[in-house]
Hints:
mainly alpha; DNA-binding; homotetramer
Amino acid sequence: xxxxxxxxxxxxxxxxxxxxxxxxxxxxxxxxxxxxxxxxxxxxxxxxxxxxxxxxxxxxxxxxxxxxxxxxxxxxxxxxxxxxxxxxxxxxxxxxxxxxxxxxxxxxxxxxxxxxxxxxxxxxxxxxxxxxxxxxxxxxxxxxxxxxxxxxxxxxxxxxxxxxxxxxxxxxxxxxxxxxxxxxxxxxxxxxxxxxxxxxxxxxxxxxxxxxxxxxxxxxxxxxxxxxxx
Amino acid sequence: xxxxxxxxxxxxxxxxxxxxxxxxxxxxxxxxxxxxxxxxxxxxxxxxxxxxxxxxxxxxxxxxxxxxxxxxxxxxxxxxxxxxxxxxxxxxxxxxxxxxxxxxxxxxxxxxxxxxxxxxxxxxxxxxxxxxxxxxxxxxxxxxxxxxxxxxxxxxxxxxxxxxxxxxxxxxxxxxxxxxxxxxxxxxxxxxxxxxxxxxxxxxxxxxxxxxxxxxxxxxxxxxxxxxxx
Amino acid sequence: xxxxxxxxxxxxxxxxxxxxxxxxxxxxxxxxxxxxxxxxxxxxxxxxxxxxxxxxxxxxxxxxxxxxxxxxxxxxxxxxxxxxxxxxxxxxxxxxxxxxxxxxxxxxxxxxxxxxxxxxxxxxxxxxxxxxxxxxxxxxxxxxxxxxxxxxxxxxxxxxxxxxxxxxxxxxxxxxxxxxxxxxxxxxxxxxxxxxxxxxxxxxxxxxxxxxxxxxxxxxxxxxxxxxxx
Amino acid sequence: xxxxxxxxxxxxxxxxxxxxxxxxxxxxxxxxxxxxxxxxxxxxxxxxxxxxxxxxxxxxxxxxxxxxxxxxxxxxxxxxxxxxxxxxxxxxxxxxxxxxxxxxxxxxxxxxxxxxxxxxxxxxxxxxxxxxxxxxxxxxxxxxxxxxxxxxxxxxxxxxxxxxxxxxxxxxxxxxxxxxxxxxxxxxxxxxxxxxxxxxxxxxxxxxxxxxxxxxxxxxxxxxxxxxxx
DNA sequence: AATGAATGAGGGTTCATTCAT
DNA sequence: AATGAATGAACCCTCATTCAT
Lengths: 230, 230, 230, 230
């Protein structure tokens, strides 16, 4: 029931527009190298307007990280809750799409921002540890623990496994906005394929083997690509 | 056989001292936030002297990345050449120590620098892709390929496996200089242990299983820690 | 006979309310440091409304000085006209109360405004010289001149005496809004007492002495104060 | 024994040059209206150089007030100490020249600065109360007290008399840099003459009268008012 | 070779003023 | 009449770089 005069409508949209502009520029040029005025211009407003919504460039940065990442984390958590199948399936059907979406979206750049700026912003460190690392880790940990409890997975050290599983994904995000954005450097791997292959490889290390001659389940997607084998 | 006077000795050491100072400060405070004068002060010289050795702050940055990383890569390469055992052993006995050493050294910070600054310095992108990513990837790839050729490892997609193996290590380096340096955030994993566990977990996914009741090779180091298994 | 609606009444009161707000803030925080919006807020209206009544912040300042001081001067002039006693009595019974009232009122702050801002506003200089200094000086001068003519006062240089009489009063006003408002600084004199004592002391220098053995009246206010003697 | 390279010589002179420039501009245009760059330009250096010597515009302001006024106060104090004649002579021969010199010098502008800025700078209030008002008042008070003790002066309330004597001088300084600098306004009094006349007039009110033929006439008017006495 | 005083471009932020609603 | 969102000129301050000593 927004009374929404055109004026009001713009006003409501501003913060998000500024956040989008800021995210794109901060990731592309770095926080220090981005002028407040550039952010404003990209959001289609003047320098002064930016300061109507965010008290300073630093507050804008914090807002970008907070707002953009929170939404993503919440979405991920929701999806996991709604799913109760075997661990391997859960990882394949929820974790993989979640990272794929993240990698496709602009939000992936937030990781670069965090890497770049945490040390100067205790706020960001707190937020990130509390609202991203902690719940994210816990989420995946729970899946693995459940899998172990059900005998689907070997009783590995869970925190280690969580990181083995997740850290490469974050590196993918970082890569996208760093070397990957430099044109020059074709690392030679396809991100989406890597996500799936990496999950499978890790699962290979995690799942309980049918001890005997059982036909190797080898459940692994066909994997085309030039290095296909055998 | 430097017969150098102390003066001469200082002069020869200058570039390296400046590089050390710059690395430490750039990693800690970020390139933009580090003043040229601070670098000079930390190296024990005056502002002007810095410019006697490096043409600009940017050149100093490039030199830091180039010099510090090249040495490490060369060292790693050398160690691999000298070793001809099974792939799994090679990874355990050369790769692990190499990353452990890197993580302990200041050089680990270079990864953060690269993440932070590549986009603004095509030079760095080129150098990093050509002198770090490429040879590093090739090195590990060769090990895996040899292992596959010898039947020790399953015929996986090698580039994927290389990244699954290596990316978490880089993340460890990044973490050390970002969240890990913020005091607040105890991620709860011990880096050295993670390195070993991660390699083992990945090897589990890579090695060829003795299909039958054969003694499960399950070669996995004792892994003390609370989640010990069985 | 304003039959005004409340709305109308507010509207009529606006200019005065804005002037009050502006006077208080300009004196307290200085003209440059007071934001137009603050004045509006203190007057209970919005930023835009201020500009409906005054064309600019500068015009507002000029209006404050003009309106607030003119009323006071007119009042003073009127009182003097109505009084025809001896000069000394006139000073005691009209001048002293006039300054006492001024000092108690917010208007005293206008002197600070004038001191602070005249140089940037020829308008203010003109107005102040013409409407305040000139008539004020003339008024007191006339009293003294009359006293001299009547033989009550010594034939001193009138302009000098006027200033000896009046300048300290203005300093009192300035003090009230500067050091006197800083909490820290108790100058140790009571303004109202000083006004009276100062007038008496100056009169002592002005009046014609009865040459002869007239019983020394030594009439001097009790002077508590630590330095009383004899 | 200044080794004084030309370089060094400039460096030593800078603070004073900047202070002079700042004093002149702050008094003329007001603190807020003076750009840091203008001060620098007037001192013959660039914007950046100003900040080599003063951490901020505010610190520059404080330094102006502190440095410039302290010297003057110290000078005045010294002169009084060296003099032991009758009070009236002391005032005439030390106080008058002191104020004449002050009025002629740029330092007189500092009073305007203090009036304008004390409220925003507790530092200034403290300094001014402690280092200027307090010692200045005490100095003159001591003269009067001595005069009273010696029977040269009537036993008036000393603090009051001090202010009657001194406040007009300060107003003179203020006037010089405010209305007096506006071209338009010829108040019609000559400052130097006023200083002398004012001191004489006040002395007339202070000195003990030779009773004419008889005992001191000490004529002081009836003074009614609520403090009426008897 | 080394120093550090000096420079000035650059960018964050404020706030008087306007004007669509 | 009243509002308050938007604007952009203005100004403080930082710091990479230069160069006289």
